[in-house]
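Hi W.,

Here's what went into the run:
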Amino acid sequence: MKHQMPVVKLEKVWKVYKMGEVEVQALKNISLEIFENEFVAIIGTSGSGKSTMMNIIGCLDKPSKGDLYLDGQNIIDLEESDLSTHRGKNVGFIFQQYNLIGTLSVFNNIKLPLDFQEYSDKEADKRVEDMLHLVKLEDKKNNLPSQLSGGQQQRVSIARCLVTNPKIILADEPTGALDSVTGKEILETLQRLWKEEKKTVIMITHDLNLAKYASRIIELKDGEICKEYLNENRKQIKISEK
Amino acid sequence: MKTTKCFTMALTMVLHSRLRSWLTILGIVIGVASVISIVGIGTGLSQQVNNNLGQLEADIITISPGYSKAQSFGPPGRGGGTFGETSSSNQDPLTNKDIQTLKGISNIELINQQVSGSVDLTYLGEKGTVTLTGVNQKVYYEITNDEVSEGRLLQPSDSNVIIIGGRLANGYFEKEIKINQLLSIEGRSFRVVGILDDTSNSIIMPIDSAYEVLENKEKNEYDTIELKVKDVDKLNETEEEIVTKLMRSRHITNEDDRDFTVKTNAESDSLRQEMTSTLTTFLTAIASVSLLVGAVGIANTMFTAVLEKTKDIGIMKSIGARNEDILIIFILNAALIGLVGGLIGVAFGYLFSLVLTYVGLTSIIAVKTVFVTLGVSIAVGMISGFIPAVNASKLDPVIALRRD
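Here's what came out:
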């Protein structure tokens, strides 16, 4: 694994927010490598910096200091438009609250990322149909998100995430708004994407039980990586501790 | 993102917009309907004025006593009057001597001397006061652009006959005046031989008869002299020649002492067009205020829409929307509000115009007016929506995604 080029590489990353006169250090000198076809869970309590890390890995936010490499390319100096294009092609988001557009049908929600890229309607429609088949929502394609259950909405969100065939899937508390049965289904879907589709999955969660689905667990505390485990045969092997 | 996709997104936003957006559209509807109606009324008014004053022939020059730097409005003698400052206090009438001088100018083909004034008339016991014009009937039928709806124009051999305006014939008195009926003017009877195809109350008769019924008019003194030129291309030279020769024959050496005015119909026509155009511009400016209020409404709605759609903007950015995509979507959204408001406004303006026509006002809606107003309406939408759209495009996706 160490000889591979990392898909995500954070090098001495700092993120500092100003709240009035006070400076808040959300991430402190983080260095991290995530490789292709890894399922990484980033865990930590509220305020530990895990959401900030997800925003930076997902190119939604830029570090205050340090470098971020995605697929070998340092994206720190990219213009806003290039960053958006990069995000659209390489990163797929799955949010806790699904974040679907309420006025668009299931079909159009899944198609939306393709609309922002140069896909022909014919190709885009075919991809959307494939995704609907994958998440088993073919019969709901004309429904509005408000007409679906929470689990169905999260499946739409997964379909929207996968439609652009991204290298990295970023899931932010993907089961946070779901009951335990539906939550388990979603986690199994993420595992299937990792194991069968060979995707790189990065999941943010505060729940250690959910993190057990991942191949590696990174624990954050006060903006720093405090522990790192490998998850092998349901046993967690500590590989570092600060 | 392709513009067509942005347009579809913008259309979806308008179609799913709340009551507030439709109220904003209503604001634009009122503005556009006002502009369409008022411009329609202005155009109708202009056309009515033109119809009433008649089409002015380009080859006609008119001479009148007194000198005014400002120009006369409309054809003299029958409803036309002067406005502006008259710089000459000396208003010696035009006489036969002037006619003789004019006959010496080679480019003049016809000369029609006229007198005019108010007269009392009686018809079947009803009385009224109208404007009468005495014309040189030997040339009148050749020089005039008057047209009759019934009967005929004055002929060289006519005496004691008149032609009358369309409204005087039908509408002025309780009973309609028909061809060959007699009218009593200042106690003398005249037979109607023609009815003009216009909406005036005027009377036209041979100049010799006019001297007999008009008070304070001396024979061989004229209120206006109308000239028809042979070669219209030499109109300006002829006008200058007339001024020079008349000044000489009237023993005027200084321009400031000039006591007569020479003008061409082209000058009067351009002045008339300028006046009606000023009127229409003034009315349109008033109507545009309501469109401006509509624009403020669009800006307000778009600012609110950006607040409402903040989360959606964050979602779109997280899945690959660029700042330019968001900017175009919101500008197109505002433009669509302008377009929808404009289209409904044009329809209402047209309906209002039909109602005005039904109650007797003239309102004309030109195709050009419709397209210009629609264009302005869309532009107003885009301009009003620009700053909110820029704000939307610059939203930080992390902050936008946190919004509920």
